[in-house]
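for the recovery benchmark. tokens below, seq after
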């Protein structure tokens, strides 16, 4: 049983994870897993299992809030989740027969590419959001058939933003590989999903965040059941983890739509750089026995 002080500390950490998760459409595992293993000495497999539960909690809280605010594109979420789930399932199966050492480097390079793309598109995204310019593209057949277009009210600029979705098949394929990497390497796919929708598919960043938040809970719920059956869920941590992330996610969803897009872009740039650096460090360590500083 955790001491009261430890419970409060962990509650605070999970609140931060839930807050950032809701703000950027991610699960928050990049905060929770290191905290559990380094600070509390929890075995890595148990830490991942607890993190998965928090993803479900933050997705329920944050995802439902974004749906209520009518920011989430549910049709797009369902469309992309089909490929992500298939990729994650295949990745989980491949873990048993292949090594993912080199894939860490590949996904690190992808993370750096997406980071640079995010920071270079700040001015363009701000201009397009303020001028409602997301409609000036050619909608592809799949997007038109599935009616993936949408709109939302941006509280930061106080007007409605409409958008069309393009490159649906490309987005579906890239989402498959994001899911594959998630299943094979155990990395969170939320940050990749957001960037894929925003950069490749003409989806406004805030919609991408909300839609990703809706999606990650679906995949995590399945994994949580498997971890429960395997007996890896440490109940001492589950209650504060779920409570902290739900409270944090609630706060994050209230704030996200009020933040200007340029700052969300900057946050994503920093997050992608962090993820890319850590994945590169792990890949180089496993393949070349080279350790990068701070990894």
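predicted aa per position
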């Amino acid at each position: 049983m955790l001491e009261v002080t430890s419970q409060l500390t962990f509650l605070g950490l999970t609140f931060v994870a839930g807050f950032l998760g809701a703000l950027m459409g991610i699960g928050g595992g990049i905060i929770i897993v290191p905290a559990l293993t380094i600070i509390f000495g929890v075995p890595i497999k148990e830490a991942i299992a607890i993190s998965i539960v928090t993803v479900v909690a933050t997705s329920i809280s944050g995802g439902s809030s974004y749906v209520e605010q009518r920011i989430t594109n549910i049709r797009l979420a369902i469309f992309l989740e089909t490929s992500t789930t298939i990729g994650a399932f295949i990745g989980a199966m491949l873990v048993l027969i292949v090594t993912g050492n080199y894939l860490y480097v590949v996904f690190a390079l992808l993370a750096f590419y997406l980071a640079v793309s995010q920071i270079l598109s700040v001015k363009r995204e701000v201009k397009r959001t303020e001028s409602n310019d997301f409609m000036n593209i050619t909608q592809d057949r799949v997007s038109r058939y599935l009616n993936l277009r949408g709109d939302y009210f941006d509280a930061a600029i106080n007007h409605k933003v409409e958008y069309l979705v393009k490159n649906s098949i490309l987005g579906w394929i890239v989402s498959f590989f994001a899911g594959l990497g998630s299943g094979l390497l155990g990395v969170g796919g939320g940050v990749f999903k957001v960037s894929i929708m925003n950069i490749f598919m003409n989806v406004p960043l805030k919609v991408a965040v909300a839609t990703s938040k809706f999606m990650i809970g679906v995949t995590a719920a399945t994994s949580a059941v498997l971890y429960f059956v395997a007996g890896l869920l440490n109940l001492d941590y589950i209650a504060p983890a779920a409570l902290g992330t739900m409270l944090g996610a609630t706060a994050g969803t209230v704030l996200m739509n009020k933040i200007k897009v340029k700052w969300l872009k900057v946050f994503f740039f920093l997050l992608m750089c962090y993820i890319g650096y850590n994945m590169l460090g792990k890949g180089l360590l496993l393949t070349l026995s080279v350790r990068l500083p701070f990894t």
